[in-house]
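Researcher: Good morning. I'm working through a list of sequences from a screen, and I'd like to move beyond sequence-only analysis. For each chain I'm collecting a predicted structure so we can compare shapes side by side. This is the next one on the list. No need for commentary yet; just the structure.
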Amino acid sequence: MSRHLPADYRRLLESLFRHRLIARTLRDRPELVQVAQQEIDSLREQSGDHGQFVEWDDILKLPVREIRQLLTSRSERMAQLRIDSPFIRPLISEFGFDQDKQRRRILDASRRLVSLRKSAFVEYLIPGQS
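Model: Good morning. Structure tokens for this chain:
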């Protein structure tokens, strides 16, 4: 394993934890899908029609229950899409992602998981391969 693997895995977990918070909130506030859609529309105007915007656009047209499942999916593709999630930037303050306390909680949780299962990175990216 690469010596950088735990940090990479930790970043993936941090993103997953953020999206778990968002997915839980979507249950009670499905209007957040429109906030994410507005973010995609804005990014398309600024940057053009990139493939990931099309994928997010397709995801955001799904029923909220399916969006919630995808946001917390451990698939490799969703891990990649979460990197540029349309939910993060418009909701950064609302969820406290810009606050040290919240960032520390997410970082500490991801560090605990990494220290418990350093080999889990492979399982995370390629289920059934550990």
